Amino acid sequence: MSKLKNKVAVITGGNAGIGFATAKEFIAQGAKVVITGRNQSLIDDAVSQLGSDTTGILSNASSVKDTENLVSKVRELFGRVDVLFVNAGVFYPTPIGQITEEGFDEQMGINFKGAIFTIEKFLPLLSEGASIINLSSVNAYTGMPNTAVYAASKAALNSYTRTASTELAPRKIRINAVNPGPIATGIFGKSGLPDDMIQGFASALQNRIPLKRFGQPEDVAKLVAFLASDEASFITGSEYNIDGGIMVNPLLG
Ligand SMILES: NC(=O)c1ccc[n+]([C@@H]2O[C@H](COP(=O)([O-])OP(=O)(O)OC[C@H]3O[C@@H](n4cnc5c(N)ncnc54)[C@H](OP(=O)(O)O)[C@@H]3O)[C@@H](O)[C@H]2O)c1
Question: For residue 253, is pLDDT > 80?
Fold first, then answer.
């Protein structure tokens, strides 16, 4: 399959989880891929697994300065971007009543401000007909306890995606959001919650998913690769849940 042949793709947060699986899928489909992250050795590790069609660039998505440097490196290397996968994100569950200004700024700074300025700074490099995919979450629509700031960061991203679709349409740039349900990645281990709490939360959640499993990063990668490809050329301003059916409220059963 070579649905992304000759396309240049940038994936923020591509050294682990969904971003890494998507980098693998993009490369399998013929793309040249740039991945970013905040830790040089994790990036180097990922690049060595992904192979010679990958470039790793150290860049913190919450820093506009880093993003400007990233854009100028990508410009020097490739001169254009055809696919921008805005994936970098963090999940720091915090109960209302314990939300701090620092915690708010950190989570919003990566998940929302980071996403907006990644797109803002890459705009001049995006080719006509480019595809932007924003990695959001079903949490944008749930009332899951302790996720108020995380959920709001993703809801804001989905709102931004709809508005951007109309503004970017004259350049034939498509922009869509993907809303995963629970996906088996390292994100929960980085959340600051103790392991036993994560295990309890994972099995309770799994039970609520009609398909009775967590998604795999590869499941999301395939959807993102479709939206990145010209096969999705009439899709913009949309959102796709990929969640094993967890957003269905069965009322009974
Ligand atoms: N897993 C799920 O259940 C799930 C569900 C819905 C939505 N999502 C969303 O999916 C996206 C990817 O998450 P994941 O589950 O794949 O998590 P993950 O395995 O923790 O991967 C996150 C990636 O983002 C990078 N990253 C985090 N903060 C960054 C920053 N400031 N600048 C650059 N890179 C940064 C991480 O690298 P470094 O930390 O090394 O920099 C890592 O490569 C996130 O936006 C998340 O909100 C995940």
Answer: no
**Residue 150 annotated to the active site:** yes
**pLDDT score at 1:** 67
Nearest CA to ligand 1 atom 43: 13
Report the run of H or E that residue 127 belongs to, with start and end.
strand 126-135
Q: Is 134 contained in some domain? A: yes
Domain region containing 221? 8-185+216-240
Please count the other Cβ atoms lying within 10 Å of the Cβ belonging to residue 181: 22
Tokens 């944008």, located at residue: 140
% of the chain exceeding 90 in pLDDT = 96
Over residues 4-35, the pLDDT tens digits come to 999 999 999 999 999 999 999 999 999 999 99
Q: Which two tokens stand for residue 16?
A: 């682990």
Question: Is 61 part of a structural domain of the chain?
Answer: yes
Residue bearing the CA closest to ligand 1, atom 25: 13
Q: How far is the CA of 38 from the centre of ligand 1 (A)?
A: 11
